[in-house]
Every structure is written in structure tokens, then in C-alpha cells.
Amino acid sequence: MPNSGSVRFTPAAGGRGTEVRVELEYTVPGRMFGAMVAKVFGENPQQQICDDLRRFKQVIETGEIARSDGSPQGTSVKQQAKQRPAQPLAMPQVG
Question: What pLDDT, on the 0 to 100 scale, is given for residue 93?
């Protein structure tokens, strides 16, 4: 899909971190119908950007990405149906 855009990092007000702004322009093949089909299959660019920013924030703040078993590949309808709340990895038992 043809696209262009920018990512801008600016200090947040009151020294409360950093704001990340993403501007993206793209042309969806098939116009409205193509956009609906893409959304059903988890290929909505706006959702993908939100997901990517969430993962980026997790890596910056914690050094890792929290995942549940049901959503390691993203936000497709099939993956959403399997999703469950994220849980910490089980610690190996010593003994």
C-alpha cells in the first residue's frame, strides 16, 4: 500500500515524558470496500500504528513487550477471538 508520513518526538508538558505523534497518509486499494476487508483481517493501518506505539512504549518503559498467548500475531479477528488477559510467564520450578 503506497504511504508516506512522519514520526515526531516532543517533550510533554510539565516534564511528564515524551509525546510521540505519527502522521501517516496512505491509499487503501478498493477504497471503502478495501478498508472494510482490511479491518476484518486485522490490517487497519490506524490500529496497526496504535498497536506499534503501545509495543514501543512497553519496550521503552520495561524493556519487553507483554503478550498473551492469544495475541502474539496482532489484531486479526481470528486472533481477537483467542485472546485472554496477559499473565506473567511461569517461573521454572527448582528442585
Answer: 58
